[in-house]
Please model this.
Amino acid sequence: MSAKSNTDETQETSQADNQKRYWQSNLRLLGKLLFVWFIVSFGCGIILADWLDQFSIFGFKLGFWFAQQGAIYVFVVLIFVYARQMKSLDRKFGVGDDKDPEEESQL
Model:
């Protein structure tokens, strides 16, 4: 009975470590994406707007474009990047809701 309880404790510890690593990876990804969003929206749209205005895109000053449109486009792209990266993390840590291909073939 002692060996079985040690095995159960080891599995619980392993699962807790896996969940902790998954959460840390998730937070690391969020931090990177939020940093990119901050740089694009606040940095390019406000702080660097005057400097970026010397360039133009589609006839608009680049600083104005980032403040009005560019930050929104980057945000939408970041949503897709986050979804793709989370799917990869889910598979890596075995927490995804994707069905196992072997299970699907047996159905």
About this structure: Residues 2-94 form one domain. The longest helix spans residues 2-47. Strands lie at 56-57, 60-61. The CA atoms of residues 68 and 98 lie 38 Å apart.
